[in-house]
Amino acid sequence: MTISKSDQQILPALAKPYPRIAVIGSGSWGTALATVAKRAGREVVIWGRDEKTTDAIRERGENPKYLPGVELPKGIDATTDMGAALKDADAVLVVTPSKTLRKICARMKPHLKKGVPVALCAKGIETKTGLLLGEVAAEELPDHPIGALSGPTFAKETVLGHPTAATVAFDFTYADRLSPKDSPAARLAISMSSEFFRPYISDDLVGVEIGGAVKNVIAIACGMMSGAGFAENTRAALITRGMDEMKTLAEVLGGRRETVTGLSGAGDLTLTCSSTTSRNMSLGTQLGKGLKREECFDGKPVVVEGEVNSISVIDLAQRIGVSLPICESVHAVLHEGADLTQTFRDLWSRPIEAEPKALGLAFDHPFGENA
Ligand SMILES: NC(=O)C1=CN([C@@H]2O[C@H](COP(=O)(O)OP(=O)(O)OC[C@H]3O[C@@H](n4cnc5c(N)ncnc54)[C@H](OP(=O)(O)O)[C@@H]3O)[C@@H](O)[C@H]2O)C=CC1
Ligand SMILES: O=C(CO)COP(=O)(O)O
């Protein structure tokens, strides 16, 4: 059912913003989201474990560790005290890497007022359990609405004020559908909105989370092939077929196709697969050029979510019985010691398939393993 322009009810901006936003994580993206919330007119406090970083944000309006030389708005409070960060928070953004989420939520729990919404801004799936981050947070914080903020959003560009859009997703309760303006998704979207940052509201948390996790793996694939010397045809094919893998996983888990073709899916896939500003694309490129993993990023510890995402995405796919050939290829190279060139040659010579899948056709490839 499509909603025509005339039917689309433009609600007056009665959705009340959350006055005080707490951001947990003082890295690139946490700092960027704190900036977005500040520019939108909110009171903002950022929590980090590194006192030098929190002092720099609070006292000098800069984050020399993650965003050197980039000016932040004045007035962002910053602390290493979790209790102080959370005690008056009206909404929380969690922005530490996906693997830290369960412990961070447990650490937050004693300090959070019941009912305060928590939006997850990391991109990944919990490796040990295969749970989406929303499920992990719901287990640890059962008294809180859990959502996600995700989309094509390089941190530095966001802080520099480049017009950016992202999706804010929370599952809608019955009450939310009766009064959307009071839903956490609407209220958080309004809370983050400014002339530079344009949030879209979604009720499809699963679809948004799958998009964020899978795009990181596809970006590594794009980097691998780019580093190996292949160009735009190859990248376009990987992006397109990578979106199909994202759609396959999202739909089986209850996500929506429209979400996959939205900002948190196609949008973020396009961004992350198009620039070595993406750490996932950059890792793939370095590996494609022949560097060993320990040589990448000059050996510095860099957050590359796609490395663990490739494990959890494949684990999840196997649990539900779907095939994700590009993600499987990345997993083989990263975690099974497979040769990069041969792996992608095999990927390209899998049985000829139909697009759309509904045609149900597949034929042995003349250069495939059965040739
Ligand atoms: N960077 C970007 O452009 C974007 C990133 N994201 C997502 O945001 C998430 C965070 O990434 P990003 O901010 O880029 O990463 P960064 O490496 O820039 O920052 C990571 C932050 O997490 C903190 N951290 C790491 N481990 C722990 C821990 N165990 N306990 C507490 N704090 C910890 C680090 O603290 P310390 O400095 O003390 O190590 C640092 O403040 C990722 O899931 C990423 O996919 C999403 C959109 C854009
Ligand atoms: O998620 C991101 C942009 O939307 C950041 O991408 P990387 O994690 O690949 O750097």
UniProtKB/TrEMBL annotation:
Primary location group: cytoplasm
Residues of the active site: 215
Annotated ranges, domain Glycerol-3-phosphate dehydrogenase NAD-dependent N-terminal: 21-170
Record-linked Pfam families: NAD_Gly3P_dh_C, NAD_Gly3P_dh_N
Residues where NADPH binds: 28-29, 49, 66, 123, 155, 279, 303, 305
Cited InterPro entries: 6-PGluconate_DH-like_C_sf (IPR008927), 6PGD_dom2 (IPR013328), G3P_DH_NAD-dep (IPR006168), G3P_DH_NAD-dep_C (IPR006109), G3P_DH_NAD-dep_N (IPR011128), NAD(P)-bd_dom_sf (IPR036291)
Subcellular location: Cytoplasm
HAMAP family the record matches: NAD_Glyc3P_dehydrog (MF_00394)
Name used for this protein in its record: Glycerol-3-phosphate dehydrogenase [NAD(P)+]
UniProt organism field: Palleronia pelagia
